[in-house]
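not sure who needs this but someone in the group chat was asking about Ubiquitin carboxyl-terminal hydrolase MINDY from Onychorhynchus coronatus so here u go. i didnt clean anything up, its just raw.
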Amino acid sequence: QVSPALRTPRLPVWLCGVPGRHGVLFGTDSRLLSHWRAERVFHLYFYSGQQEQTQTAHLTIDTHSHHWEEAPGEDACSPGKRCPALEMAIRTKWAGATISWNGTDPCS
Protein backbone atom coordinates (compact mmCIF):
# COMPACT_ATOMS: atom_id res chain seq x y z
CA GLN A 1 0.00 0.00 0.00
CA VAL A 2 1.27 3.47 -0.92
CA SER A 3 1.84 5.87 1.94
CA PRO A 4 -0.46 8.95 1.92
CA ALA A 5 2.66 11.15 1.97
CA LEU A 6 3.70 9.69 -1.40
CA ARG A 7 0.27 10.25 -2.92
CA THR A 8 0.02 13.83 -1.60
CA PRO A 9 3.48 15.30 -1.06
CA ARG A 10 3.96 17.79 1.76
CA LEU A 11 6.49 19.78 -0.25
CA PRO A 12 6.48 20.59 -3.97
CA VAL A 13 8.64 18.11 -5.90
CA TRP A 14 9.01 17.63 -9.65
CA LEU A 15 11.09 15.00 -11.44
CA CYS A 16 12.58 16.74 -14.46
CA GLY A 17 13.75 15.24 -17.70
CA VAL A 18 15.07 18.13 -19.76
CA PRO A 19 17.41 17.51 -22.72
CA GLY A 20 20.79 16.40 -21.46
CA ARG A 21 19.82 16.53 -17.80
CA HIS A 22 17.59 14.67 -15.39
CA GLY A 23 17.06 15.74 -11.84
CA VAL A 24 14.78 16.82 -9.05
CA LEU A 25 13.31 20.30 -8.76
CA PHE A 26 11.90 20.94 -5.32
CA GLY A 27 10.79 23.62 -2.91
CA THR A 28 10.90 23.83 0.86
CA ASP A 29 7.72 25.91 1.26
CA SER A 30 4.63 23.73 1.60
CA ARG A 31 2.41 26.76 0.89
CA LEU A 32 3.28 26.41 -2.82
CA LEU A 33 0.98 23.39 -2.89
CA SER A 34 -2.08 25.06 -1.42
CA HIS A 35 -1.83 28.86 -1.35
CA TRP A 36 -1.61 30.74 -4.63
CA ARG A 37 -0.26 33.88 -2.91
CA ALA A 38 2.91 31.96 -2.04
CA GLU A 39 3.66 31.91 -5.77
CA ARG A 40 4.65 35.59 -5.89
CA VAL A 41 8.36 35.19 -5.08
CA PHE A 42 9.65 31.82 -3.94
CA HIS A 43 12.69 29.56 -4.02
CA LEU A 44 13.22 26.27 -5.80
CA TYR A 45 16.22 23.97 -5.77
CA PHE A 46 17.52 21.72 -8.54
CA TYR A 47 19.74 18.70 -8.06
CA SER A 48 20.81 16.47 -10.93
CA GLY A 49 23.36 14.22 -9.23
CA GLN A 50 25.77 14.66 -12.14
CA GLN A 51 29.48 14.87 -11.39
CA GLU A 52 29.79 18.45 -12.66
CA GLN A 53 27.12 19.65 -10.23
CA THR A 54 28.98 20.31 -7.01
CA GLN A 55 26.05 21.86 -5.14
CA THR A 56 22.29 22.11 -5.39
CA ALA A 57 21.24 25.01 -7.62
CA HIS A 58 19.20 27.61 -5.73
CA LEU A 59 16.72 29.43 -7.94
CA THR A 60 14.54 32.42 -7.07
CA ILE A 61 11.29 32.57 -9.03
CA ASP A 62 9.40 35.87 -9.34
CA THR A 63 6.05 35.42 -11.06
CA HIS A 64 5.12 39.11 -11.13
CA SER A 65 8.12 40.44 -13.01
CA HIS A 66 9.04 39.33 -16.50
CA HIS A 67 12.33 38.03 -17.80
CA TRP A 68 12.27 40.45 -20.76
CA GLU A 69 12.15 43.45 -18.37
CA GLU A 70 15.49 42.73 -16.69
CA ALA A 71 18.58 44.83 -17.29
CA PRO A 72 20.75 43.74 -20.24
CA GLY A 73 23.36 41.18 -19.35
CA GLU A 74 21.47 39.75 -16.37
CA ASP A 75 19.23 37.32 -18.18
CA ALA A 76 20.37 33.97 -19.52
CA CYS A 77 17.38 34.04 -21.93
CA SER A 78 18.14 37.38 -23.57
CA PRO A 79 18.11 37.57 -27.40
CA GLY A 80 21.04 35.71 -28.92
CA LYS A 81 21.45 33.41 -25.93
CA ARG A 82 19.93 30.01 -25.35
CA CYS A 83 17.48 29.75 -22.51
CA PRO A 84 18.35 26.86 -20.18
CA ALA A 85 15.89 24.01 -20.67
CA LEU A 86 15.13 23.97 -16.95
CA GLU A 87 13.94 27.59 -17.13
CA MET A 88 11.68 26.73 -20.03
CA ALA A 89 10.25 23.81 -18.02
CA ILE A 90 9.63 26.08 -15.01
CA ARG A 91 7.86 28.59 -17.26
CA THR A 92 5.37 25.90 -18.34
CA LYS A 93 3.95 26.25 -14.81
CA TRP A 94 4.71 29.95 -14.22
CA ALA A 95 4.62 31.61 -17.64
CA GLY A 96 6.75 34.73 -17.99
CA ALA A 97 8.39 34.37 -14.58
CA THR A 98 11.82 35.79 -13.88
CA ILE A 99 14.24 33.08 -12.79
CA SER A 100 17.40 34.02 -10.93
CA TRP A 101 20.10 31.37 -10.62
CA ASN A 102 21.71 33.23 -7.67
CA GLY A 103 25.24 32.83 -8.93
CA THR A 104 24.87 29.22 -10.05
CA ASP A 105 25.86 28.47 -13.64
CA PRO A 106 22.68 27.29 -15.41
CA CYS A 107 24.77 25.17 -17.76
CA SER A 108 26.39 23.09 -15.02
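also Residues 4-100 form one domain. if thats useful
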